[in-house]
Design a protein that fits this description.
UDP N-Acetylglucosamine Acyltransferase, domain 1, transferase (chains A, B, C), 40 strands, homotrimer, Udp-n-acetylmuramoylalanyl-d-glutamate--2,6- Diaminopimelate Ligase, Chain: A, domain 1, Hexapep (chains A, B, C), UDP-3-O-[(3R)-3-hydroxyacyl]-glucosamine N-acyltransferase activity (chains A, B, C), alpha/beta, eleven-stranded parallel β-sheet, Hexapep_transf_CS (chains A, B, C)
Chain lengths: 345, 345, 345
């Protein structure tokens, strides 16, 4: 694929400064791009590479444009503009419509003719698959699932029975939607399974990372609204609800019945306890333990960052005596008050 | 499925207060249940929905019964009673016995005639599969595995060679039992693999969550005793042993050779270091780091809960100076003692 | 398999003290080994079992040799010597060369005749598979992947397009190499996907645990150098680079563009934020949050170990008032200084 720079600028809505006839065939980082490649600057830490880049053109903001020695595409949001340009240069490979010979399809499944069903995939009774859907190799779609148009299951995805996936979703390998939630009642020390009767319901434009799991609801559904993006190895428990355009980084976990608002970002390895509510526009750092509701927009953090082991050991020892310190301090205040005669605060 | 309320009460051992002829066809939450549905109250936070529920009957405790305007099933443990009632109303779908055409079965495998082997599953030499077992689509059972009666592998489960699974177990999609433990010896900076020669051994009534991994033992077996319940994305390392009826929530991890007692609960994302011992009836919060043995029954916690980022930054800065604070405090105590002439404590 | 002890000693380079004619058929722990089995002592905690072991021979260090009542193989590094001996006694089962009937192979794939391609695996266009490679059942290898000689994909492994795996690697079930990195640009509250155009590049002798995920790079590659060992359920984000012979334990996570040096060890559940640099020979405890670069060799830790819940609640309450304590302390110092007339430190 080769695109003229002028055409590219127009397609992505950036202001071109330079020769519109330059042919762009690929993309690269500022440090390593070569002739014919497009680069971008969105993190100012890389600005020093602008002057000597081998790229044929660079996407950047007005503010940085003067540092650049090659053609530029000037825009307010260079990373977004880059995303669009790269999508034009590298369109997702189209899958050939049709059903692979080795796929096993239940008689009552309704599969659009434009859909592509990969080898060794298994599709159950009454499944409905929309136009231009791609079900990659080795996937298992249990009975009564529904997949909206243009959604892509890359490979080895599992949808358990009655899972609903919207349009234009992207499900990465190994992801499992609709396994039973972890519902157990205790009978004198033995666990009795609580049937998990809800579904997983995904809106449109949802992305699910590799080996991520989203459990079906206990009674009502587990819901990921339009535009939710989950990275790899995330666990979403039963009856969680995640609002529009919220993104979570890898290894995060959300316990049962927690509601998360829209336009939130949740850092990697962060865990949320069950039955809490997170408002819209909440941002949580990585590796945090969220133990209560944060209804208000804001930035929240937790955890103790790593340090040299010797310093950490000393800190932990001090923490174990923090209660003693507090008591000593209280006593000291009393004594000093009696010495000075002044009230302490 | 429709069941008369009187019949249901008898089957689950609850006291019926109301018309035994009411037909129950489904279940629902107190807030959303409609006519013909059964609901339950086990968390007192939802008691306020009792008066106006649209359910035809509610399972609840004696104490809450008077608040309810519809028929009730009174019981000591409403959640357990609900679990039983829902299991009667929604029995697990039976799989048709037999072997799918696309399954690949080794000649020496012994598969009970009542078992159901799904499409695109692969079963190795000398595997033994008991009565009424379901091996869902896309599963791989390596050689010499053994699966007890009524166990269900939902889909895309992997059992590595010689894994032993008891009766009535439930293994969710993507789970992997019996992969090599992480055993490495160091040879002057290079890792040399230590053969992992033990097995994974599961008792009866064990549940394994989606994408959970249980490694085979190095020399002896990794053992999950009867009734152990593991949620999704849990890692159990080689030679771990987990006692009867212990449950672990999602994303927990247990390092090698650790022994966990019976009737424990381990919170989500909690990690246990290797070579420690956890007693019976130990309960550990989520996101805790268990760095030493807890042989005694009790409730244990760790981790610093998330807070506003500004407060967290201040706290971390204070923690970095905690040692200085402790030293100042010691000096102050000495000075005050010399001022007052009194011994400090 | 049975090996004479004399032969074994020579093969692993240990000094034999005892009868070279003893036949060794297996291995076992000091506590449980029986006649014909070889055991080893590498952790001094088990030294007390030496005197009464039922093993026919024990691998140990000079220092411990005198405690042992049976034949010994004396060596500087007993665990390493054991690894070698066990590998001789239990060689990995060879897979029969050839392509299973149920495998689906693209016409342009180049597969060495000595390779073994398991049932229900799917291999894409222009894939190149080297000599003695084993692709276990249910694996999916997308187009243009390359797999070096003697590498083994145990079962149900996914390699996304253009992934490069070196020689003698071992990829456990459910692992996913080359899924898209988590690259998103924000367009007024909506996420726009940033195409992930790099690859995953694995050196030789790399081991990848069950259900571990390694994402493809955004522009350049995600790289795991020779001898890297990853345990289960680890997440490696786009453009991470891990140096030779670095090992990571289960459930660790590394965010995007972070570089880790060689010969490091990373504990289980430890998380590294993105865009940082970890030097060579860095060792990080489990469950740590690495929030900044550690360029220097050393031992680093974080996190608050679990304790009794009542003590933890008290500690967290104290921590919430740590700022007040620091302020009180400052005031006290001032007051005591005014009483004593001495400068405080």
């Amino acid at each position: 694929m080769s695109i003229r720079l002028g055409e590219l600028a127009e397609a992505v809505g950036a202001e071109l400064r330079g020769d519109p006839e330059i042919a762009i065939q690929g993309v690269g980082t500022l440090q390593r791009a070569t002739e014919g490649q497009l680069s971008f600057l969105s993190n100012s830490a890389y600005r020093r590479y602008l002057a000597e880049t081998g790229a044929s053109a660079v996407i950047l903001s007005e503010e940085a444009a003067s540092d650049c020695s090659v053609a530029t595409l000037v825009t307010d949001n260079p990373y977004l503009t880059y995303a669009r340009a790269a999508s034009l240069l590298f369109p997702v490979a189209e899958a050939a419509p049709g059903i692979a010979d080795s796929a096993v399809i239940a008689a009552s499944a309704e599969i659009d003719k434009s859909a592509s069903i990969g080898p060794c995939s298994v599709i159950g009774e009454r499944v409905r698959i929309g136009a231009d859907v791609v079900v990659g190799p080795g996937s298992v779609i249990e009975s009564e699932c529904e997949i909206g148009e243009q959604t892509r299951l890359v490979a080895r995805v599992t949808l358990c029975h009655r899972t609903r996936v919207g349009a234009r979703c992207l499900l990465h390998p190994g992801s499992v939607l609709g396994a039973d939630g972890f519902g157990l009642a205790n009978d004198q020390g033995r666990w009795v399974k609580v049937p998990q009767l809800g579904r997983v319901w995904l809106g449109d434009d949802v992305e699910i990372g590799a080996n991520t799991t989203v459990d079906r609801g206990a009674l009502e559904d587990t819901i990921l609204h339009d535009g939710v993006k989950l990275d790899n190895l995330i666990q979403i428990a039963h009856n969680v609800e995640v609002g529009e355009h919220t993104a979570m980084a890898g290894c995060a976990g959300v316990a049962g019945s927690t509601k998360i608002g829209r336009n939130c970002t949740i850092g990697g390895q962060t865990g949320l306890v069950g039955h809490i509510t997170i408002g819209d526009n909440v941002h949580i750092s990585g590796a945090a333990l969220v133990s209560r509701s944060f209804p208000k927009a804001g930035y929240y953090s937790g955890n103790l960052p790593a340090m040299e082991n010797s310093a950490w050991r000393k800190l932990i020892a001090r923490l174990r005596r923090l209660d003693d310190m507090a008591k000593d301090l209280k006593l000291l205040k009393k004594k000093v008050k009696s010495l000075t005669g002044e009230s302490f605060k």
